[in-house]
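[agent] plan:
  1. take the single chain provided in the ticket
  2. run structure prediction with default settings
  3. attach structure tokens to the ticket
  4. add a short note for the reviewer (M.T.)
[agent] executing step 1
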Amino acid sequence: MPAGEWNVGVIVNRKGARVRGFSVGFALFYEADDIWDPEPDPDLIEFPQYIPSDIWRIDRTAGRARFRTVWEDGHRTVAQRLGPPNLIDDGWDDESEWQHAVWRLGARLLIVAQGDDITTYSLYDEASLQVIDYPDDRPIPTGWDLHSLLMGSGQE
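[agent] step 2 finished; step 3 output follows
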């Protein structure tokens, strides 16, 4: 959903009947690491075809370490306002390159996430700020359970 110069992802329950959160991306990472992934063309301004906003800056030389640094900057920015996160989750397996910082705010979770950018069908990895309804009497999910929650399942 466009919101000014940015896109805001609206998270609904499985039946689409109730909004239960939102997501705002603040960084994308692309790495052709699969034989089916298109290789970046340095002459192509918008590669791959989707860039969320004209105000995004593109650094074609930035690697995974720079993407991690941008996520850490986002995490620190939120931590300056809310204090340390209730949980830092570093993925669902030993090979995961994603991190999530999670704060519980009553019946909501605020998450500075690295994960799939579903707008591009996961062609990019995305760093985002997400707010999701989540019962305050349940433990904060980790690993694949957190991934499922961020992808729109795992809670009605």
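[agent] step 4 note for reviewer: The chain has one domain: 2-150.
[agent] ticket updated
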